[in-house]
Write a structure and sequence with these properties.
- This protein has 137 residues and is an alpha+beta fold.
- It has a single domain (24-135), classed as 2-Layer Sandwich (Alpha-Beta Plaits).
- The chain is 23% helix and 18% strand.
- It is built from four helices and five strands, in the order αβαββαββα.
- It has helices at residues 2-16, 57-61, 96-100, 126-131; strands at residues 40-42, 67-73, 79-87, 106-108, 123-124.
- Strands 2-3-5 form a three-stranded antiparallel sheet.
- The protein starts with a helix and ends in a 6-residue tail after the last helix.
Length: 137
């Protein structure tokens, strides 16, 4: 009768003084898996602008229809997105936009903690998508 009690106590004390299983979340963060798809970001070109050529393939392939592009052309005839809007609240993070991009302008990031009380921060434009790169090494 006392032997099972001592075995249980020994097991409990062994676990008590071992390395903790859980992490202390706000201070320590688990790196996301390699295949993790988080908030999108734009890659910059040599001039510091987006590589996006406003072809509209990402908008066409998006199943949740969270991407809206207005196209413009410069004096050389090169297309660029006059406005590129991504509604991150509607995004299902499928990665189709990244796969469809012919110039590798948009990428799925590794950001997994993004909270807000307002909808406005989740409506991202071109400049905000370019800024997301610094959060995604």
């Amino acid at each position: 009768m006392i032997i099972p009690l001592l075995k249980g106590l020994a097991f409990t004390l062994g676990r008590f003084f071992s390395r903790p299983i859980t992490i202390q979340y706000p201070e320590e963060k688990v790196p996301p898996a390699k295949r993790w798809r988080g908030i999108q970001y734009f890659e910059k070109d040599e001039q510091g602008k987006t590589k996006c050529v406003a072809c509209g393939l990402c908008m066409a392939v998006c199943p949740s229809q969270c991407i809206h592009i207005v196209t413009a052309e410069d004096e050389n005839g090169k297309r660029y997105p006059l406005t590129y809007e991504l509604d991150a609240m509607r995004c299902i993070f499928c990665g189709y936009c990244e796969e469809a991009c012919p110039v590798n302008a948009i990428f799925m990031g590794k950001t997994y903690e993004w909270v807000g009380r307002e909808r406005a921060p989740f409506l991202m434009n071109t400049e905000e998508l370019l800024e997301q790169k610094k959060y995604n090494p």
